[in-house]
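input
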Amino acid sequence: MMMNKNEWWKDAVVYQIYPQSFKDSNNDGIGDINGIREKIPYLKDLGVNVLWLNPIYESPMVDNGYDISDYYKIADCYGTMEDFDNLLKEAHNAGIKIIMDLAVCASSIEHKWFKESKKSRDNKYSDYYIWKDPKEDGSAPNNWGSIFGSGSAWEYVEERGQYYLHLFAVEQPDLNWENPDLRKEVYDNMEFWLKKGIDGFRLDSISLISKKQDFPDDPAAIENGYGSPYFGASNGPRVHEFLQEMYEKVLSKYDVMTVGEATRTCVDNALLYCQPERKELNMVFQFDHMHVDYGKFGRYSDLKFKLSDLKEAMFLWQKSLNGVGWNSLYWDNHDQPRFVSRFGNDDSKYRKLSATMLATVLYFQQGTPFIYQGDEIGMTNVAFDSIDSYKDIEAHNMYLKFSNMGLSNDEIMNYIHNKSRDNARTPMQWNSNSFAGFSCVDPWIGLNPNYSKINVENDINSDFSIHDYYKKLIKYRKGNEIVRDGDFKEIGLEDSDIFSYTRTYKGKTLLVLGSFSDKKVCYNMPNNLQKFKRELVISNYNGNIEQNKDASTLYLRPYEALVFYMYED
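output
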């Protein structure tokens, strides 16, 4: 039993791998475990020390593996348990830890628990899921809609004469965490993987495991429409009780990293999840900065974000968790558009500059950085011509929803191009060979056509390599007390062009600047910092810094990033 809680995850840089899109080793068009093994030297060279694997369990793949049918078995398309054991061993030998993605808010309808549960109301598994009687008119128990936009979050089953809850796809019934036997099943499974030697978990949609037991209607529902499933499920009444039990029963026995996906969680609630003394999780994925470009169609809106809104969201979390919790740092993941297309500029003129600027302003904040595969080469969104080329269940549901609203195909596809989750799921672009070096056959989802120009091989061999810039950032972070433990102070919240802040620790200060403009912009050094001398730590431009004679004003070029070490004589 390991009890050494050394908080190693505070010094971690995590690389997220979407297995089916990372590297195909057996040429069936699907990435796999042995493909990941092939790239261990690449990942070690990049400097990351933790891999987060999206689900690799047995699954019908309705939701790309988050609909799990057997928590103890590796999906055939990814390989065998022996392959996984070898991956774990080789990663550990390279100084790289592995955390698993665990989806225990819901399972697949193909899981043996659900197959038994739907048979009757009085067997062992009958209430492993959330079943409710119809209303008097036969309709669903409440007005909650599916997160995936498919209509009601309830599905009727004749065998039981009841509805089951599915916050996500109809093939993903929600697990009933009120049942202690179900919770024990979850904890036993976690023990199984931890005893194998994995180094922690990313817990999918963990803020949704506890529901209000009266299952109230959402009063804010649109007339003749569905209400938000988050109304009665997000940060529910027993979620912290369940997580504290999970810690006591399982996590307390191991020196591991835990990060929970905490949908609709504000700063105050986040502190309940990640304050060490509460013994729940190490950190959460929050979404405040992911909502800055939401509009009338939620995440599928084409609203352009305001930098002030982005800074306000990120600065709030930095200040609020400083010294009392821990942040996760990310720009994108498997559920989000590519960060350089969303927050930067993916035009060929500015793609590399904006990608490196965004990495800079993120990775000097306090928290654990998460690199999503392809970030390190500036992979971009993809614009497939037809909805038929998209695989994501949510994209298809939204296409149908928008069609029923009367939107034109061009309008709908514009929304899909900007925000579909498949933007992040196109195959990793390793080189300019056929199929981008991902495979030797057509992959399970189409390649981004720009792979011949944007790929690992080209980037590493270029004069300005995003990949090499990431290596510099990662190397600088390691063991740096200011970056790890320094106080955070925002600068110029109202500035519409420049993202700026300081990190201070034991009298030492770093000043971080990043321009979000495609034009030269002016930055006036704050009065309290003008007395300091400064040494350039990192920049994404070669050549001299542009400034006035007394260095009180800097002129940042398009998407320029600058980090200074500030000191007194």
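quick obs: The chain has two domains: 8-106+180-388+428-474, 482-567.
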